[in-house]
Amino acid sequence: MTIFARRARASAGRLHPELSLVSYTLLGHLEESGGCRTTDLAAHYALDKSTVSRQVSALERAGLVERRLDTDDHRVQVLRLTEAGRRILAQVTESRRAAFRERLAHWPAEDLERFAGYLTRYNAWPGRGPEDG
Predict the structure, then answer these.
(1) Which one of 36, 38, 99, 105 is least enclosed by Cβ atoms within 10 Å?
(2) Residues 90-99: pLDDT tens digits?
(3) For the stretch 72-101, what's the b/e string if a residue is b when 16 or more beta carbons lie within 10 angstroms of its beta carbon?
(4) Burial of 60 (0-12, 13-18, 19+ CB in 10 A)
């Protein structure tokens, strides 16, 4: 698992120099959720708010994320992807999918099914903690 995590971090930098694995993960969550507060991101990933704030600030400086007032509560700022953020996320996602396709292209179907089953089982674990990412 350590090697898997190390490779994921390294590949994120190769796919887009501005996008660490953490940044990619945060952008993905913002896309899935349609936007959320920094505190929501911190709670979702069980991270300290200051850690997430630093990541979000870097994404804002890169023009990938913007803050908008919540339509329901104007005291709250919601993070949303910019068009540039959506484009880069899509590019990185496609690059990662292509890398997975290439790496798994020669695996027999039964190995792929078993691997997918293990990943599904692993991801279905109900616990939440800092290591869950």
Answers:
(1) 105
(2) 988 888 889 8
(3) eeeeeebbbbeeebeebbeebeeeeeeeee
(4) middle
Q: What is the pTM of this model?
A: 0.72
- For residue 71, the one-letter residue type is T
- As a whole-number percent, the residues of the chain with pLDDT over 70 amount to 81
Positive or negative: CA dihedral 91, 31, 59, 62: positive
Distance from CA of residue 49 to its chain's centroid? Answer: 17
State pLDDT tens for residues 22-73: 888 899 999 999 999 999 999 998 889 999 999 999 999 999 999 998 888 8
Whole-angstrom Cα distance, residue 117 to residue 112? 8
